[in-house]
Amino acid sequence: MPQLNPAPWFSIMVMTWLTLALLIQPKLLTFTHNKPPIKKTITTTKPTPWAWPWT
């Protein structure tokens, strides 16, 4: 069963992880948004009670 033999898959996993950590992640972290996020104030509204037709 090839699933139980980690020899071919462990090296692929390590190389993929290193590629992601060392090459792709720094490029993604330098990405800047066109519109930076703004802090919104939370407004709470009082819910109106439901008018049941049979009451």
UniProtKB/TrEMBL annotation:
UniProt entry keywords in alphabetical sequence: ATP synthesis, CF(0), Hydrogen ion transport, Ion transport, Membrane, Mitochondrion, Transmembrane, Transmembrane helix, Transport
GO cellular component terms listed in the entry, alphabetical order: mitochondrial membrane; proton-transporting ATP synthase complex
Main subcellular localisation: mitochondrion
Residues that span the membrane, as ranges: 6-24
Pfam families recorded: ATP-synt_8 (PF00895)
UniProt membrane topology term: Single-pass membrane protein
Cross-referenced InterPro entries: ATP8_metazoa, ATPase_protein_8
Compartment annotation: Mitochondrion membrane
Family per record: Belongs to the ATPase protein 8 family.
Entry-linked PANTHER family: ATP SYNTHASE PROTEIN 8 (PTHR39937)
Protein name, entry field: ATP synthase complex subunit 8
Organism of provenance: Mareca penelope
Gene that encodes the chain: ATP8
